[in-house]
Amino acid sequence: MDVAVCCPYPFLATVAELTKGSKVSVGAEDCFTEDKGAFTGGVSVAQIKSVGCKYVVIGHSERRHGNIASESDATFNLKTRKVLDAGLEVVFCIGETKEEYEAKLNKAVCALQLSKGLAGVSKEEMKRVTIAYEVARPLLSTY
Questions:
Q1: What pLDDT, on a 0 to 100 scale, did the predictor assign at position 46?
Q2: Does an H or E element contain 131, and which?
Q3: What residues in the chain have per-residue pLDDT under 50?
Q4: What is the DSSP string of 22-80?
Q5: 85, 77 Cβ separation under 8 angstroms
Q6: What per-residue confidence (pLDDT) applies to 1?
Q7: Of 65, 87, 114, 118, whose CB is crowded by the most CB atoms within 10 A?
Q8: Angstrom distance (rounded) from CA 87 to CA 23
Q9: d(CA 102, CA 109)
Q10: Which of 42, 57, 55, 59 is nearest to 16 (CA)?
Q11: How many CA atoms lie within 13 A of 8 on its CB side?
């Protein structure tokens, strides 16, 4: 079993240093779609790799469902491609909203997220992809 700590950008270097020599890997919570340029706040995969990260989380519910950005499956696919091309591993998040769950669309939604977000990823590359089912609705709610 692999163990990783995925943390916000400001803490990546510190966590990488603290876990050096251990069996715990480090990952970033997201990455930017561009390799370089003037993109304030955008952190490239190369920057993430340079501090010792092995993993990048892609498609987190907060980026997928609008709390932060409402990014598209195409954006998640681009990020996935960048991460894999850099030799890092992807933690690819999928999951439905409460409304999609209640409409019994959860399986279809997750299947679509997988097919679009991982389009073009080879069988060999899938060995470096971990799928994380992330419930984007309250777990303890009653409905």
A1: 96
A2: strand 129-133
A3: 143
A4: SSEEEEES---S-SSSS-TT---HHHHHHTT--EEEES-HHHHSSSS----HHHHHHHH
A5: no
A6: 73
A7: 118
A8: 19
A9: 12
A10: 55
A11: 2
